[in-house]
Amino acid sequence: MKVLVLNCGSSSLKFQLIETSPERIENQTEEVLAEGLVEKIGMAESTVRYSSHKGDAVKEKPVILEHAAAVETILYHLTHGKHGVISKPEDIDAVGHRIVHGGEKFSASVKITPDVMEKIRECVALAPLHNPPNILGYEVAHQYLPNTPHVAVFDTAFHQTMPPHAYFYALPYSLYERFQIRRYGFHGSSHRYLAFRIHQLTGKPMEETNIITVHLGNGSSMAAIKGGKSIDTSMGMTPLEGLVMGTRAGDIDPAIILFLMERENLELNQANNLLNKHSGLQGFSGISNDMRELVAQADAGNERAKLTIELLCYRVRKYIGAYAAALGHVDHIVFSAGIGENSSIVRRKSCEGLEFMGVKFDSERNEALNHKEGLISTDDSAVKVWVVPTNEEIVIARDTMRCVVEG
Ligand code: ADP
Prior knowledge:
- This protein is of the alpha/beta class.
- An 8-stranded mixed β-sheet has the order 5-4-3-2-1-6-8-7, with helices on both faces.
- Strand 10 and strand 11 form a beta hairpin.
- The mean pLDDT is about 95.
- The structure holds adenosine-5'-diphosphate.
- The site of adenosine-5'-diphosphate (ADP) has 13 residues, from helix 11 and helix 13.
């Protein structure tokens, strides 16, 4: 089955066309037939990148004023006589859409019907920046592929197994009743992929395995996964809570914002920008939100860059300790995403001092392993530490296939 995976942002549309089937999942032989993205939609000059499994690559800069034209461009390349991988759009068997917020309404992926779309729209209040472009992505794809099944895969769904003591905030209960204010968590497809991958790598049943997953990208989050189910995660009602991220502050004393709003006369959107766009690695270092740049500066002796890296790693270490307590027993810690897969120094520092809980970190293995899968603890470490490149698209493709096959 050929599944088109779409991830639609406000000015971008990422895609992968994945060949999958129950047998391919079982044998791990799923194949990305083509992938790419359209960026800067609606701007003076857009960027289109496309590559196929046959080795063809296209990069062009047309004017793409709206998302519908982006979908049309993607279909044009996928069906192109030379570098295409299918002969007509109808060869796409299903479309899987990444939807950021499913609120409490969705604890699993679902085939999109008018009723489902209505419920997704009701979640817009919880993710006003993310859900509208996701919904638009569905609308324009449905316009071009009206007879193809479409499936919604939610970032929040995997964390719907959290127990109430993990997802409630100690705020007046009426705020939960009125506005559904609670922890939801995000990056669900990534955390789920990592847990499943550990199950594949170790051959141990998911039900018997406790895992701490550490997704460190531009946005970062961790999850405590007990027997295959998320029991806690670091992002909250929005993706702002938790770890130190590229430009997001993560955990802070909420009173700081009240203090600043009063002292600096901050407007709502200024406070929002401060926390989401001008904080984190970028804001604290004053250098960059990119870990590569920070490591280079730290190596060159820049003290603030060094401290920024310490800040990020200490927060990860604290969460590992917290989730060890939440899980009661940890079998695996897994690092993933841009920073987790590539930065050996962040992995090493995040695991410093964890010997007390059974982590025997292997520095040589850690240094040798960048953007590859493998173990970075010793073989006899009670808690195994891994690097696993994440693959959210494959999770979306698998769920899409299952929802279509199972009706
Ligand atoms: P997103 O959350 O946008 O999907 P990614 O998971 O792609 O982000 O992570 C992007 C981040 O990964 C970059 O901002 C950079 O900090 C980090 N990164 C990428 N490559 C490296 C590398 N070789 N070394 C250290 N950090 C890296």
